[in-house]
Every structure is written in C-alpha cells, then in structure tokens.
Amino acid sequence: MTQSQPLVLGIETSCDETAVGIVAGRNLLSNVIASSVDEHERFGGVVPEIASRAHLEAIWPAIERAAREAKISLDDLDAISVTAGPGLVGALLVGVSAANGLALALDKPLYGVNHLASHVAVDLLTHEKPVGPAIALLVSGGHSSILKLESLTGSYEQLGRTLDDAAGEAFDKIARLLGLGFPGGPLIDREAKSGKVAIDFPRGMTAAKDQGDHRFDFSFSGLKTAVSRYLKATPQYLRADVATSFQEAVVDVLTMKSIDACKASGIETLLIGGGVAANSRLRELAGERAKKAGLELRIPPASLCTDNGAMVAALGAQLLSDGVSPSELGIAVDSSASVSTTSWI
Amino acid sequence: MTTLVIDTATSRTSVGLFDGAVPLFAGRHDGATEHGEALPRLVSGALNLGRPITQVLVGMGPGPFTGLRVGITFAEVFARSKGIPWAGICSLDGIVSGVTGEYIVATDARRKEIYWAKFDSGKRITEPQVSLPEEVQALGLPVYGEGASKYGFEADIDMIYPHPLFMLASLEWADGVHQPMYLRKPDAIPTSER
Ligand SMILES: [Zn+2]
Known about the structure:
heterodimer, A: alpha/beta, Nucleotidyltransferase, domain 5, 6-stranded mixed sheet, 5-stranded mixed sheet, 11 helices, 41% helix, globular, B: alpha/beta, 2 domains, binds zinc ion
C-alpha cells in the first residue's frame, strides 16, 4: 500500500452511532454502523449515558466487522483516525479509548479529528475532484452550522450556527408533538410527502434585525413554539399538512442562508452534510436554488450524510497523505470543539 | 506470562506490568476526569519496556461511568486487536491486602454515595452495592478505600485505590467480571412518564 492510498480505520462515537469505517486513500472499503437509536426512542431524544454504554458494547464488534468487510487484517493499517469532538463527552471517550487501544496494540499513528470537518471530508470518497473553497451546511441532531473552508484540510471558519436547537432536534420535537415517534427526521419526511404547505410557520433568524450579527445563524425554538401553539389552537389539524409546513420552514431557512453565504463569500460550491442532509425536501430545494444561483451542489449519498466512520477515516487518510503529524498520546476530547481544529496535534 | 493491568474505576488511573507476579512497571495518574488522557500515556510507558504482552487484566468497577469505560474499552480493544486474552475483575478486590477479619472496601460513587462490598481476610463476601455512607458506617466495620477517605471514615492512606499488584493477586480467588459494574441506571425519564 503506497502512502498515496493509505489504509486508515476511522472511529466515530460522538452521538448515538457506533461507527467504524475503513478507507484506502479515497476508496471506501467498509462502513459499519451500529446505532443505539431504538434504546433512546422512549426518551424522545438521545440519552448520553445510554449512548455511551451502547458504544462500549458495540465498539469491538464494529471494528472486527469493518476489518472483515474490508478484507484486511488490522496489522495492515497505516493509521487510525477518531472523532475527538465536538460531541457528547462520555460517548467521544469510548471511541477515543478504543482508538488508543488499537493504535498502541498495533503500534500505528493515531489522528484525533474534528467531527464537522469529517462530514466535509466524506466528499473525498464520492468526488473525483477534491473540494476547493466551499460553503458547508452541516445539519444533524447535534449540530447546525454554516462553515466556510478554503480546502478540505485547510482553514475553516464558522460563519453561522444554531442559537438554540439543532435542526435534527427540531425534527425530533415536532415528530413527538405529532405523535410520529423518534427519530423525527425520516418520519416527518415521509409524512410530509402526503401534505401541502398550508400553514405559514415562522422562519427563524430571518427578520431584518437579524441580518447583521445573525445573518448566517439559525434558531428553531420559535418555530417549535409556533407549531405547538398551532396544534393547541387547531384540534382538527391535518397532520401531514403540519409536517409539510414545518419541514418547509426548516429547509427554506437552511437553503436560503447557505446560498446567501456562498454569495457573500464569492464561493461557488455548496456542500451539505449531516443526518438532516438525508431529508428529501432539503435535497430537492437545495438542488433548485443552487442551480438558480449557478452554484455547484455536493451532497453525499444518505448513508454517508449521517454520522459514520468512513468520513473519519477519509479525513485521517487525507491528513496522512498531506504529511500532517499524528496526534500526541493522550488526546483530550473536546465536546464543544470549534471547527478551526481540523485535527488534534 | 506478561500481564498488563489497568484500572480507571476511581479518580486514579493505574497501570501495571508484570512478568508472572514480578512487577516490571507501575504508573498512576490522579484526576477524576483525566482517565482518557492519562491511560494511553501510562500504557505507553509500560510498552516502552519492549516486553510482548500476553494478557490484559482490567478493573470493571464499580465506578463512575465515563472514567470506568475508558479503561474497559481500552483493555478490550487492545487485547482483542492483538489476539491475546483479557479478563475483568471487581475493582474493589484490588484495593486492600494483608488485613484479617471482616472489613468494608468502599470507593466514591459521587452524588454523596459510595460503592462498597464486605470482605473477610482478603476475600470479598458480598456483591458490590451503592449506598449512602451512613448506611455503611452503621455496619461498624473498618472501612478502606477512596470512599472511606473522602467521606470522613478513619482510613488507611496506603489502601485507597486499586493497586495493580493486588488486582493481579485477586485472580487467584475472585470470579471474573464480564460486564461493567455501573450499579445505577442512566438518568432519563421516558416521555410517557413526564
Ligand atoms: Zn454529525
């Protein structure tokens, strides 16, 4: 294996997915995901301690299966890569400890990487031409950010973020109000297919006064309150119409602000990642608006949008190819890591 | 037989390396939230001796969850990726040595509670539990361990944390522990009960 195609195993445990992926440079060899999502259902959201316990049970089986599916021996690896933040501390620590165990047992270099940068790095596995200057919209149950990047492993700048709930959390909360279950994203997406945009729900952070400091920030708590009020005031509401109208309010703001960020930065590529990027209406509307604005739109397939180990491995492989030094022993997890830290030194 | 011994069930991170029962390396770091950073550094120190490890022994608690998982995760993945055996023991079994008669070993469970078990002349005679310190004190037995030193019992300052040497020795009498000893359910209320 040449250094231009390094064999890297990536571990991702920042939320409720225990994920291990293996890449050879920019080729995806395996992508194993064990989710504890079912265990969180009756709580209506991810319970950190439940997620962490599930990670410990699932991590070795996931590593073993990833190696088997990639048809490699762990000894063949050139490096290990692991999400060190942002995310849930207890959950991150299981992944980082597993990565430490692997790296020390096999005597391999270890890269602690940023979860958000990994969501961008997954693009390496699906596009021939590496992403150059781009705006990245990262939306999931744990984060909602607009980032500006010069190149994949170059400098990142956070232009905007959510001031309250993450977009995925908003989907979860509304799904619960509508009695649809958990996780809310795919359930609302499906329900919305049979509804129409009948209710004009508010678009958070889009008022004229927000165009200064909060031009690229999001807020979904007002929307949640509006939906809740509407449901109380309208006992005969049509569930599909509420789902469709709510979803439209979210994806309208997400796409509008990302395209505005491209225009404001003179950048012609928009990349969308994170679990919410699997939403069919978001993909559709982003496609329409990007085309109209003359932008290149890059969205990975849904299996690589949600949290996964392949994206972590892809970023690790790129760092190794670029000659970036591995992290020192004793990586400190950082639950609120900013994206300016692509990798841990 | 070269054994790597690890414990992260208390505020101390302990690592030991043994050739049979002969200590080759011992390292520790005190810090209740620093297990994740300390453990790989300590293990690296042990590995630098260049001795091929043939088995791994790890404390399975009881212990506060986040730190406890650091040691167990590391031990399992380290051993399995090398294809060598690993075993878990009760961390309370590795704290006290050389005491005769009945006594309690207690560690800090936080939230004003302690994890504890009763011992008789070096062997544990009850399952570990989590209780208020007063309930344990009412038993009227000597108490050893971090739970004793922190909650104001008269404590032996040399026997507060799991020690790799005593952990290794406990293999001779204790049963293996196969699951992390959390002893508490996660804090979470189902939506149906809110
Ligand atoms: Zn994510």
